Amino acid sequence: SMGTSARFDAAKLADDLAERGWLATDLARASQYSDMTICRVLRGEAQSPRTWERVAKALGKPLRRYLRRVA
């Protein structure tokens, strides 16, 4: 279970966006989420694992790249 044992690393996602030269709106388009949802993801707000997975896939990255274990 991904429950509370993992947290999404929004800072790493932002780094990958910048490296690609993408804005939040580009990620929204690629992942087919609204700009608002992507803003929430980038702020590190809680999302469903499915949302995280689709965002990672839109960047061509494995979800585990953005998961940080928390105690």
Listing every helix as H and every strand as E from the N terminus to the C terminus, the arrangement reads: EHHHHE
* Contiguous helical run count: 4
Q: Termini distance?
A: 14 Å
Query: What is the overall pLDDT average?
Result: 92
The shape is globular
**In what order do the strands lie side by side in the largest sheet?**
1-2
Provide the helix percentage.
Answer: 40-55%
Low-pLDDT segments, ≥5 res = none
Strand content: 5-15%
What does this structure look like?
- The protein is mainly α and 71 residues long.
- The chain has helices at residues 10-20, 24-31, 35-42, 49-58, and strands at 6-8, 67-69.
- Strands 1-2 form a two-stranded antiparallel sheet.
- Helix content is 52%, strand content 8%.
- The mean pLDDT is 92.
- It contains 4 helices and 2 strands.
What keywords describe this structure?
mainly alpha; 4 helices
Topology diagram in text:
Layout (H helix, E strand, L loop, with lengths): L5 E3 L1 H11 L3 H8 L3 H8 L6 H10 L8 E3 L2
Antiparallel strand pairs: 1-2
Helix pairs in contact: 2-3, 2-4
